[in-house]
Amino acid sequence: MLRKLKSAELGSRINVKRGYAVNYLIPNGYAILANKRNSALFEQKVQLIHAKNNEAIANAQRLCKKIEGCAISIHASASDKGRLYSAIDARRIAAELSSICGEKIDHRYVKLKEKIKAIGEHYVDFAPYDNIHVTIFVGVLHEAR
């Protein structure tokens, strides 16, 4: 396997049905056919992928250290009962994080169960890589009219 899937880890050998391999795994770059000729190529690709993953893990840890302990305050217009007129999504939180830490933050790293729809204190997970995450405090304040 050249990529991690639900059924297999990166660099592992698995047995699958021929149709699944020929029609999905091999054309999409998830796997290569296991034979003598591809064995050396497979080892090179796995080493390259592991090196890229180690770099990505290091970047994710660096980013988490930078963001850890950050508190974001977002001003939004809301009703008298505290309901926001427009919900706050991961893109807006990522934009606020980018402005605070001075580095581009991808909105897919911000893990929201659902959009923030009320004024108050909220805790949001920030996960730039598998099993690497921090919790961010997001305070939503009533915008002055």
Model description:
The protein is α+β, with helices and mostly antiparallel strands and 145 residues long. It has a domain at 65-142: Roll (Ribosomal Protein L9, domain 2). Helix content is 36%, strand content 26%. The chain has helices at 18-25, 36-67, 90-101, and strands spanning 71-76, 83-88, 110-111, 116-118, 120-129, 132-142.
Question: Any key phrases for this structure?
Answer:
145 residues; alpha+beta; Ribosomal Protein L9, domain 2; four-stranded mixed beta sheet; two-stranded antiparallel ribbon; 6 strands; elongated
Approximate shape: elongated
Q: Work out the helicity level.
A: 25-40%
At the fold tier of CATH, the topology name of one domain is: Ribosomal Protein L9, domain 2
- Uncertain stretches: none
Explain the layout of strands and helices:
Elements: H1 18-25, H2 36-67, E1 71-76, E2 83-88, H3 90-101, E3 110-111, E4 116-118, E5 120-129, E6 132-142
Parallel strand pairs: 1-6
Antiparallel strand pairs: 2-4, 3-5, 5-6
Quick recap of the structure?
The chain is built from three helices and six strands; from the N terminus they run ααββαββββ. It has 145 residues and is α+β, with helices and mostly antiparallel strands.
